[in-house]
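Hello forum,

I keep getting stuck at the same step: I have a sequence, I want structure tokens, and every attempt I make locally crashes halfway through. Rather than fight my setup again tonight, could one of you with a working pipeline run this one for me? It's a single chain of 326 residues.
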Amino acid sequence: MKDALCARHLDAAALPLIDIAGLFSAEPADRIAVAERIGAACREVGFFCIANHGVDPALQREVFTQAQAFFAQPETAKRAVDKALSKANRGYEPLRGQVLEAGAPADLKEGFYIGEELAENDPRVQAGRFNHGANQWPAEPTAFRPSMERYRDAMNALATRLMGALALSLQLPEDYFAGFCRDSMSTLRLLHYPPQPANAAPGEKGCGAHTDFGGLTLLLQDENPGLQVWDRHSESWIHAEPVPGTYVINLGDMIARWTNDRYRSTLHRVVNISGRERYSVPFFFSGNPDHLVECLPVCLAPGETPRYPAVTVEEHHREMYRRTYG
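Reply #2:
Ran it on my machine without issues. Output:
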């Protein structure tokens, strides 16, 4: 794999752009037509953009406003909700707090993790289940929590709809993944990338090359470019330029396991060469922790065997966190 931080500039169409308005239709044929386009993108790239997704633009703008206000605070205020204080991996992650690319410097980004809100007396919390618990909410800005909770709910609904489309694309019943979607272990993550420094250490970048852990990632980007996707055909990185009004969707490793790699979990990274502060908001839809992920029979050719053993969502995530946080 080419190591240089350069990447090819292509048109926005480098990632398939799919109008998903048909997924909201009462007509099965409309939903199937969109699902077929999504399936083609999953097989070829593992990344695509969606338009007409139904998420309120005002809510999206509010999320960016609150994220920018939080990250602009003094370090002491952010550290008051440091992720290290949480048993459920919630809260603030300081600059260079994660290494996503083995052998590379720590990622040049700071973040904030938000999950499903669970009280201390919830049986799952009392049992010490992985990534289960209460969120840490900053004292300022005061609108931070309600904005993020509304947005998280909107993302859960959109991700569930997209999982229905994935089922249709595999010629499965539309509700095939309903059990996976129920009580999903979802994570909303706010990210702030300072500009790539001119004197960066060798290999230093905003976010190292990686594939995502879970099911679906729904990425909201600001206007500043930085996301780069590995193109297996040219064996080079391509810029995924922000397209106003869209989400970038990519498949995580669990979908690849489920489909025996028919659907791709593709390497990507972030290099903020915009010269400006960059903000993005990925939503990781990871599924029900108890759900078993094993090769779908429709993804096995005659005589073919599964490439991966069966694993629960929770088991898979524990291993992925172990790898990236040591």
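Helices lie at 28-44, 57-71, 75-79, 123-126, 144-169, 178-181, 253-258, 313-325. If your local run keeps crashing, start a new thread with the error log.
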